[in-house]
Amino acid sequence: xxxxxxxxxxxxxxxxxLPARAQLSGNYTLDxxxxxxxxxxxxxxxxxxLAAGVSxxxxxxxxxxxxxxxxxxxxxxxxxxxxxxxxxxTGAPAVIRAGTSIALALNSCAFFVFENLEFDCSGTxxxxxxxxxxxxxxxxxxxxxGQVVYSQGMNRCVFDACELDGKGTAxxxxxxxxxxxxxxxxxxxxxxxxxxxxxxxxxxxxxxGILFWHNTVLVKTTxxxxxxxxxxxxxxxxxxxxxxxxxxGTGVCIKYGASAAGVLExxxxxxxxxxxxxxxxxxxxxxxxxxxxxxxxxQAYFNTNRATMVPQTGAAPIxxxxxxxxxxxxxxMDPLLVGLTAPYDIHxxxxxxxxxAGTTTYVAGPWISYRASYVVTDDFEDxxxxxxxxxxxxxxxxxxxxxxxxxxxxxxxxxxxIAAADTGLPYQLGSSLGSGPLLIDTRRLxxxxxxxxxxxxxxxxxxxxxxxxxxxxxxxxxxxxLHIPNAPVLTGLRIHTAFVTLRAxxxxxxxxxxxxxxxxxx
Length: 522
What we know:
Blueprint: H1 4-16, E1 24-30, E2 39-40, H2 43-50, E3 54-62, E4 66-67, E5 71-74, E6 85-88, E7 94-97, E8 104-107, E9 112-115, E10 117-120, E11 125-130, E12 136-138, E13 141-143, E14 147-152, E15 158-160, E16 163-177, E17 180-181, E18 185-187, E19 190-203, E20 207-208, E21 211-213, E22 216-219, E23 224-228, E24 239-241, E25 244-247, E26 252-256, E27 268-270, E28 273-275, E29 282-284, E30 292-293, H3 295-309, E31 331-332, E32 337-339, E33 345-348, E34 400-404, E35 412-418, E36 426-434, E37 445-447, E38 453-455, E39 465-466, E40 469-471, E41 477-483, E42 494-502, E43 510-513, E44 517-520
Parallel strand pairs: 1-2, 1-3, 3-6, 4-7, 5-8, 6-9, 7-10, 8-11, 9-12, 10-13, 11-14, 12-15, 13-16, 14-16, 15-18, 16-19, 17-20, 18-21, 19-22, 19-23, 21-24, 22-25, 23-26, 24-27, 25-28, 26-29, 28-31
Antiparallel strand pairs: 29-30, 32-33, 34-35, 35-41, 36-40, 36-42, 37-38, 39-41, 42-43, 42-44
């Protein structure tokens, strides 16, 4: 008798006796220097363990170190809206540096949450999401790649307070392809630096029902910062509201998709702030009498031709002409960011036209199923947004400083101080003088002997301030004045004024600091 069949049976029995890999549930760590049965030293190890499935919510506490690998996840059995899979770094972010590979690949997986992670690569994509749905990214940064965030069929995904950095080489910063009725949400994101001929937000290849609210987009390109529809029947029903869009190149801020006949696609764009030093804020795809021009020129052209340009037919469900907007309430001017060039600071200055200029009105309709009553409740730093008077862009100025006055020697500038969250706290007004920009800096605050707040400068006479200190009233408001001495030598001087509230428990006694109101002595 030949022994081979007996050996074969023994091998099969041995394999059947091997224990199955257990499903994950509960808390784990992901730390190259960690140890123990609930620690994984690489993302690849965590991904392999997840292949067995999950039996409850899973949290990976990721060490704030650099992982030199590329990350890939497939569908996880048992994952659901209840059994989520979270990767979160606390404090400093965890960095995933993938070299020329894709930094993060999501393949048909769902219910993942990534928080405070940085993905960096120089490959084809930084994030490649393929048929991956219901995933959330909060305070994550994606850097590099030919296309920074690219998707095929990504549905119901959320990008909240994320940064997308094209490093000046990316051909496209956001490319949601073939999303159909996707209902994805991009809010409070900072999207910047495509290549000199690249694109920013590209909603022109089967992007449908995607919500872009309260983002700040900064590019320098010969192309467009935002391309809103125009490719085909599904490149429509996208909502683009409360965004700051800056293109310092020769291209445009927003390009409206239109058919060859000049008929607009069904999209909703409104309450945005555009800034194009070239004068080309808007472009109409396949336009005839209007191609590129200012926002005012576009609005005038569109209002004259609205009846023929508004879509009359199309694949249902689609918004009606009465529901969609084409920048009826948008503005074109410098948003007055604190730092418009690298290194960027996307906080709004106190005189920004974006303050209180946004909307919380959602253009609801059957074409968007993503939380039809949804409003953006905070900003990129998790500061709360008000129910009314919301700011445009990723930053919501918590306390605001509004000023008026001639700004000439011997005159007085009047300020209104608004900080509803600081009701009852003491306040003071401070100024920084110089050719600038000497922005108000909490690290250089000082109180003089007469309790006058002096910021970044010494020797100010108390007489320059009037009602510069007090307690905020029940509405969180107060008034203050800054008197400019009658000295012609001050002409041309830049004055940066800010408003602070004080709390003993806060660092350096500062509870909050407003944006800066900037003016030049005339």
